[in-house]
Amino acid sequence: MDPILRVQGVSKRFGGVEALKDVSLEVKRGSITGLIGPNGSGKSTLFNVITGFYKPDSGSVYFEGKRIDGLNPNEIYNMGIARTFQIPRLFGSLTILENMMLSPKGQRGESLVKAPFKKVWLDEEIQLANEVKNLLKEFDMDGLYKVYASELSGGHIKMVETSKGILGRAKLILLDEPTAGVHYAVGRNLFEYINYLRKSRDLTFFIVEHRIELLFDYVDYVYVLHMGRVLSQGTPDEVASDPKVIEAYIGGA
Amino acid sequence: MFDVVSFLISWLTLFGIYAILALCLNMEIGYTGMANFGLVAFFGIGAFITAYISISTFLSFYGYNYPVYSLDAIIAIGKVAGKTPWLNIAVFLLSLVLSFLVAGIAGYFISYPTLRVGPAFLGITILSFGEMLRVFMKHFEPTGGAYGILGIPHPFAWVSDPLIKNISYLTLTLMILAGVFIYFELLANSPYGRVLKSVREDEVASLCMGKPVPKIKAELLFVASGISGVAGALYAFYLGSVTPDMFITTVTFEVWSMVILGGRGNNFGALLGTSIFTLLNRATSILNFMFPGSLIDPNYIRWMITGALIVIVLIYKPKGILPEKPIKTEAWKIFEVRRGGRIGLKLIRTKVIVIALIIVRYIKMAIYWLIGREII
After folding, report:
1. Is the minimum CB–CB distance between A228 and chain B shorter than 8 Å?
2. Per-block mean pLDDT, blocks of 10 residues, chain A (253 long)
């Protein structure tokens, strides 16, 4: 299968700290790819480079064959890459419905000129609302549409964050520690949900995760970052038995 | 003798002008989270543009060759202001358009370097811009320096009865206010309003969902600053004179207190806050007039009441008197089980219309009772 995302020789430096050193990796279309590594190994920096928050000092990022490094985050989202954050960033004083309705890209009513004319965007709005309803219904959350995001439970927040990308027609979803701060069983549910989404909607997931025991049950391929370099890569079994990985996590550094 | 009619006219005109400002600020801080601490700069730009344009147009139309701020100009304008009604109206409209454009473009460019950083930078930049502009205008000869420009021709200067003149101007102001209010309500209750709120909540997350945040902020600042400029134009015509010291930062914070008191992110709240504070403003100036030389100047009491009101409201209703509500696109209806349906809605609409008609009738009767003759 062709890679949907290709990172080639990316380096990023913050002052004296080399956060990424010549990182190259590929995410295959339709896979769940994991990215693990000890704290400070550059996982979040890599995510920020891919989604356009940082420009790499050298190297390039390709998404579906098109070069995307140097684009703005909003342009990258519009190309089909959605992301979540380590700390969930829902819009607290908006309802779940409003939060999800923000995801679809290129809405007609989102322009200053067209917004006052309801006729222009009403049909699209209704159609999107139906889509949101169906998505929420799939996971028994359609009763929550009125709830403010700040009042939602941790597990639900993660579910909403993960499924928002679907409404934006994302092809690749980057998840930054999806199970951080939730109970083990909830985390397992979430991974089941991710797996289900991948299969039912032809999505690709690229996941940073610290809960390796959870991650390894679901991923197809794993990259290990350490001190800004790709230390090891392979299927979960290969990586788990790699002595370099064990040293980086337990002994080493 | 306390004159109810002129009190009402002056209060409502002031209310109209300040309400436009409060609505603009509400769009900026309440919806988009841009802390505009320099609202008064755009208000002032609108007022000065209006003063300059209207007087210079009148002078050149009648072939006078005086500087706009000179005493000769004031006298000349006094002679010719009521002669050509169409020119008054044309100058009024031209001033509104130019005030909108100049203030809007100023808002766009002043904020441009700060759009990519946090709200505090934006606030400080515009705040200092406003102060610098005021000090600059105080020393800028072509607009009369610290003395400003006097004798701005009123758009209804050709109406001989001052009462009718003032009521006409009040009507015009309230019509513009209504237009601005409807425009902002439509904007707020649309997908665009939802995007604005997302920018307020979390710029980074909004950017991550494909929203071009810097562009959105820049265009909203253009519109809101432009409309603040229109408010400035209305203010200049209302007072008939402008001086740089009318546009001190206090004005900005007065508008801020209106928005905070009424409710951020709620246009009705902005109107309510404005009506409370402008009423307070008028009431204390009347007290000042009725009890001259009293121990405490009522103008200072006004600031005390303002502070006390804000503290009390923020303790008991931290989100303002009328708190923010979810936006009203039709999306939520998809989730509601149908009940009542269209007939219910139609009934409510008819009721609203009937009540509105009754209210209008009573207002007419009240005006008749107050001034003793038919005006509408």
Report:
1. no
2. 86 89 91 89 90 91 90 91 87 89 87 88 89 86 85 84 86 89 86 89 90 88 90 88 80 52
